[in-house]
Amino acid sequence: MTTAAPAEERPEPYRRVQRALADKGHPHAPLWLEVSARTAQEAADALGVTVGQIAKSVIFRRQADDEAVLVITSGDKRVDEKRVAAITGALARADAEFVKAATGFSIGGVSPLAHSRPPVTLIDRELFRFDDIWAAAGHPNGVFRLTPQQLQQLTGAPVADVVKL
Q1: To 5 degrees, how large is the angle CA 134–CA 138–CA 141?
Q2: What is the CA radius of gyration of the chain?
Q3: Which residues contact 1 (CB under 8 A, 6 or more apart)?
Q4: How far apart are CA 8 and CA 13, in angstroms?
Q5: Best exposed site among 53, 79, 95, 150 by fewest CB in 10 Å?
Q6: What's the DSSP call for residue 38?
Q7: CA dihedral 134, 48, 51, 53 (to 10 degrees)
Q8: Where are the alpha helices (DSSP H) in 69-161?
Q9: What pLDDT does residue 72 have?
Q10: Residue 82, burial from CB neighbour count under 10 angstroms (0-12, 13-18, 19+)
Q11: What is the model's pTM?
């Protein structure tokens, strides 16, 4: 399931998340999965947890200023773009090129922290249904464990209701 190869052998975005977690005193170092976890379902299957425990990162492009808007929600929920836009302003879809340029991460590995430019971030309340959740660690094979409360502390992001009912 996971490997313990030296960190210097891992991709730079993964190492950036690893350093950020260590700098913030987070108790759980990221894990490197033997399989890709580009989707919430793949991550849940690899970790043996429910898909809802995967903190998926969805990036939008704010129309007013081209800023990245990151919504972190439970893997079993769909983001309601209208609810997010009511908080952040009008949104557009973010393609892979925009995501990489704005965050420093590729789609499937967008971490909630250690971005190249800090995005506008919202945490969906649905994550608080779980004691432990898992988030991407900068690469589709990288994940780290945390609580929803730790996610809020690490990101400083507000909690909102932004999923489809």
Answers
A1: 70
A2: 15
A3: 33, 34, 46, 47
A4: 11
A5: 95
A6: -
A7: -30
A8: 81-88, 96-103, 148-155
A9: 98
A10: exposed
A11: 0.94
